[in-house]
Amino acid sequence: MAEANTAWILMASALVLLMTPGLAFFYGGLVREKNVVSTLMYSFVSMGVVSVIWVLWGYSLAFEGGNEFIGTLDALGMKDVSFEPDGDGISPALFAIFQMMFAIITPALITGAFAERFKFTTYLVFLVLWITLVYVPVAHWVWHGDGWIFGIGAADFAGGTVVHINAGIAAIVAAHLVGRRRNIERGVEPHNVPFVLLGAGLLWFGWFGFNAGSGLAADGVAVSAFLVTNTAAAVAGLVWVIAEYQQSGKMSGVGFATGAVAGLVAITPAAGSVGVMGSMGVGLGAGVLTYLAVRYRHLLKIDDALEVFAVHGIGGIWGALATAIFAVEVGLVEGEGSLFWANLRATLATIAYSGLLTFVILKVLDVVPGLGLRADEPEEDAGLDISLHGERAYVSDGAD
User: Is 53 domain-assigned?
Assistant: First the structure.
């Protein structure tokens, strides 16, 4: 069994890493043609920067000893982290690999909020600071045995608070501080819908590693998590296109993709504790709530370009609470309330911490000479691909 567990978590880690390129295509298809490379690069460079941070100090601070708020630097540079499997077949090094993939995608999720206008060099610095000061502490609180959120009995099987609420709240703060895109009132038409659907498909596929792998074993929990993950995504995607049809008489590919991703977000914390019918409730709630959030988000007067807060923030909050509603034996539908209050506390703490620290980080970066948050107006008007990366996503025949 130990060898099977090792093989499964190695595969699950690869599946989770695939989600980041999937996110890149999902986001890349939604922006304008002149900002495709820039949008893709936000995700791809996270694979580089966060991987290095994680092996140097991120894993150690998140999971190596410490107190209820933060770990230690005892495993700095992966010092003395064993590659030998324990009794269940999961070595500390393999666990670190699996968790690295979660750390990589989380800040990449935020980038959809400030797409088409954020300075790439500043983003590199933001990655280092945000992972170290925001992601790592929250991961320690929730998933380490000494973490205070773990200690109050909150349930987050695969990252509803650590990944989605964390990123969703950071996204709305970032969108507010960076400001609205120039000459845009209510969003833009996606330049490449096939990219969006391809990205959503890769996310859906990779999410099976995200959720089914989080039990760290090739067992019945993994099978159940796989099934409820797929079910919630399917229900939420269908809810989205039905809602669209009621409003406009049309069912869009982007709508189904967005709804499916919202369902995946919401089932993430619940995948280890809800049954199939509960996952349908999770997916239904995710589809309805995130659809309404996207439809009415403009009332906030904040240009969250790719609806990160609506899908990941609202979807993550619903998922955390839905976990406590539908969890088998310990949820509200079973007459138990303690998990709900624990998850509510965890949700509110993550919102407050992520929002405050992200605000401080971005405010500081905005006044550091040579950085600043936003690209110059001529750069933004020309498109960040050519102005910041010196590349075009598409070059027609005969173009220079």
Answer: yes
